[in-house]
Design goal:
Helix content of chain A: 55-70%
Low-confidence stretches of chain A: 124-163
Oligomer: heterodimer
Distance between the termini of chain B: 61 Å
Mean pLDDT of chain B: 88
Structural class of chain A: mainly alpha
Largest sheet of chain A: none
Number of strands of chain A: 0
CATH topology of chain B: Helix Hairpins
Distance between the termini of chain A: 65 Å
Largest interface: A-B, 51 and 51 residues
Radius of gyration of chain A: 26 Å
Order of helices and strands of chain A: HHHH
CATH architecture of chain B: Orthogonal Bundle
Number of helices of chain A: 4
Chain lengths: 163, 91
Amino acid sequence: MIEEIVVSVLLLVGCLMSLAAGIGLLRFPDLLSRMHAATKPQVLGLLCLVMALAVHVHQWVWVPVLVLIWVLQAITAPVSAHMVGRAAYRSKHLRPQTLVQDDLAVVVAAAQEREDGEDPAHRVAGAPAADASRDADTPQDAPGAEPGHASDPEPGPDQPPRP
Amino acid sequence: MILTVVFWVCGVLLGLGALASVVRLVRGPSLLDRMIASDVLLVVIASALLLRGVATRELISVPFVLVVAAVAFLGSVTVARTVASREEGES
């Protein structure tokens, strides 16, 4: 009886998380808040359902597999959310007025500034090395296909044909 | 007796969540919105597999939950990288 109640509560909480994620996906205005809603069933909902299964099935053999499922999900969910959030920020898929604080703007601006400052130095330092390797290997090579140009932060107009 | 009712209620809740994520998947304005919606849909599928395992006391669906979790992670990371590199190439 107690086991039934525990399993019922865990199942209901876990499934309510999925419903909450669906409602949040429909009603939230921009991408970052939708990501916030989507995280709920990924961690807490799955934890509740896995615990319900572990309580309901009286076999200790399956407990490590269930723990592995939840740990894998809990490790990979922040990674994918981080990458999606960065891609959304870079491609301007968010409303800046909904942000309370924007720490990434400072970092992006500093990186852009550093990149712009280092741009001529890279060209001066990279050009002789590329010329030397070109002279050593094949004198008549395509000018854009040198490995020394791969680290250039600002690719020239002859870069796109490179595979 | 209680559990049978709970199973039906949970099935309805999961169905509503899946329906809402499918609506967002169709309507989503950008590719990343659709990606998040498909991520939620995969989590709902994993939850349904676990619910089936509880309902039937069979654990044959547990490895598939693992596979679904791995597929969701790989898919979202791949799409995020694709979107990021495409935007960087355009600008």
